[in-house]
Design goal:
With about 500 residues, the chain is of the alpha/beta class. It contains 20 helices and eleven strands. The strands form two sheets. It has a nine-stranded mixed beta sheet with strand order 1-2-3-5-4-6-7-10-11, sandwiched between helices. The protein has a two-stranded antiparallel sheet with strand order 8-9. Residues about 1-30 and about 35-40 have low confidence and may be disordered.
């Protein structure tokens, strides 16, 4: 039998070799998809296409939706998705729908990720990469907020946000999570599919859970990777969770002979650095993360805090953090702030900043008070994460949260919750809160994984087994213990211990 990788290569070769007659032959190939056989009278777009990261041809579909549901005859937008056909001729009737995080990421850009995380699922099911309104190919709210990510000045953040809002095509008030899940159900109906399996990553876990709340009859199973329960206030839990992740980084450094020798006082150095910046911010030169032009950056405590907190999301970036903190403490802030600049560039690279703002402002900031954020501002992070987005939201037109969306769920569907043990924003404690809502939930922890577990190690196989069975009973996930932190970076040349 050929491997999945060989089959993908074969599909890709067929697409190129038969280009002159691609229409009929590729359509025949895609007809193997369950979704291709379904009647879809409401689809306004349906074509063969290719997406980065998937070698074989896929199917791009779209459905028209009102921008404002209260005005069904008013302005309309197209909600799009990419259907990656199953590798079998007889796929299951219930596809896996992928809901990206951010918020602001579109799943249509998850081709490579899907190849890593869901290729086992694809053996038996179609994969639907769904672009939530405002993201990816679905009426994207695209604008550049990267400069705001390198500032902690409220006036500068608000000005950058207003400029961003002035440049988007659509009214940002109509890009809430509540409208996005209605879009998803409309697409489900147009595709003629009765039930869905949903995978949500990071903020996509919120989308998945809220869809299940409103459309439980159409949910077969949920996989929540980096989960946040609807009742959990993200900006209130983030400071303590980030502090715990920094503590875990120090503990792992202490357990590594080369790391502890190079950085014997990691946490103390980080706190001393932040305390010094609290008294006297430092101005440095840096290349702009998008344009590459030289810019001057004022390194404040908040900016350094967010650089540290953000680096903890990805273990490969966290492996550089002890070195970057040590360099900053000695006066060289470039490695630390360059990481923050790189993360800020993510607000324009694959993430639609306008969609991020619309969802966070409506669904998080609007129901989180400054007093509550200050009260929960623990450890090194304090409430800097909240204050940045709260400031930006004062300048961003946004809708309001659905009042039911902050209530716990009570839905009897099988749920697999995956948590990374060193995740600074959705650690196992948040996963436990999400799992506790469901009578049939299985919570698995990859102790040395960061934010998002699905593409790592044996996780793709575990996910596929859960979805196939519709249950986590008897699921062997001990292989998740084999996931390890990358080696620590010890010098500027990248030597590792």
């Amino acid at each position: 039998m050929t491997s999945p990788e060989e089959r993908r290569a074969i599909y890709g070769a067929v697409a190129w070799t038969l280009a002159p007659v691609a229409g009929a032959l590729i359509a025949a190939t895609l007809a193997l998809s369950t979704l291709a056989r379904a009647e879809a009278p409401a689809l306004t777009e349906d074509k063969i296409c290719h997406v980065e990261g998937i070698e074989s041809p896929v199917r791009c579909v779209g459905i028209e939706r009102p921008l404002d549901p209260a005005k069904p005859d008013g302005e309309r937008i197209v909600i799009r998705a990419v259907i990656v056909p199953s590798l079998t001729a007889t796929p299951a009737a219930d596809p896996l729908v992928v809901l990206a995080g951010g918020p602001g990421q579109g799943a249509s850009a998850y081709g490579r990720f899907a190849g890593l995380a869901f290729n086992e699922v694809r053996r038996t099911r179609d994969i639907v990469l769904f672009d939530q309104r405002g993201t990816g190919l679905s009426a994207p709210l695209a604008c550049d907020l990267s400069s705001a990510g390198l500032s902690t000045d409220p006036a500068a953040i608000a000005a950058a946000t207003r400029q961003c809002a002035a440049g988007v095509t659509y009214d940002p008030r109509f890009f809430t999570l509540s409208l996005a899940i209605d879009d998803l159900d409309a697409l489900r109906a147009a595709l003629g599919v009765e039930t869905l399996n949903l995978w949500g990553g990071s903020y996509g876990t919120r989308t998945a859970q809220q869809y299940a709340r409103r459309y439980a009859a159409h949910v077969r199973s949920l996989v929540l990777d980096g989960a946040v329960a609807p009742a959990t206030r993200l900006f209130l839990t983030a400071p303590a969770d980030a502090d715990a992740a920094l503590g875990a980084l120090e503990a792992d450094c202490r357990a590594d002979a080369a790391c502890v020798k190079a950085f014997p006082t990691l946490r103390a150095d980080a706190l001393a650095l932040l305390a010094a910046l609290d008294v006297a911010p430092v101005e440095i030169g840096l290349a702009h993360p998008v344009s590459g032009a030289p810019v001057r950056v004022i390194v404040t405590r908040d900016l350094a805090t967010e650089a540290i907190r953000g680096a903890l999301y990805a273990p490969r970036r966290a492996a550089l953090l002890p070195f970057a903190i040590a360099r900053a403490k000695s006066g060289d802030y470039a490695p630390l702030i360059a990481m923050q600049a790189d993360m800020s560039a993510g607000l324009t690279d694959g993430v639609q900043a306008g969609a991020t703002m619309s969802v966070l402002c409506a669904d998080e900031i609007s129901i989180t008070t400054p007093e509550a954020a200050r009260g929960k501002g623990a450890g090194f992070a304090r409430d800097s994460y909240y204050r940045f987005w709260a400031t930006a939201c004062t300048a961003w037109p946004h809708g309001t949260a659905d009042p039911d969306f902050s209530k716990p769920l009570a839905i009897d569907v099988p749920v697999l919750v995956l948590s990374g043990g060193i995740d600074p924003v959705t650690p196992p404690a948040r996963g436990a809160e999400a799992a506790a809502q469901f009578p049939r939930a299985w919570h698995l922890i990859a102790a040395k994984a960061g934010h998002n577990v699905s593409p790592l190690g044996c996780a793709p196989r575990v996910i596929a087994a859960f979805i196939a069975a519709g249950s986590g009973e008897g699921l062997d996930a001990t292989c998740l213990d084999e996931i390890r932190r990358p080696p620590f970076v010890l010098t500027a040349t990248g030597s590792e211990g």
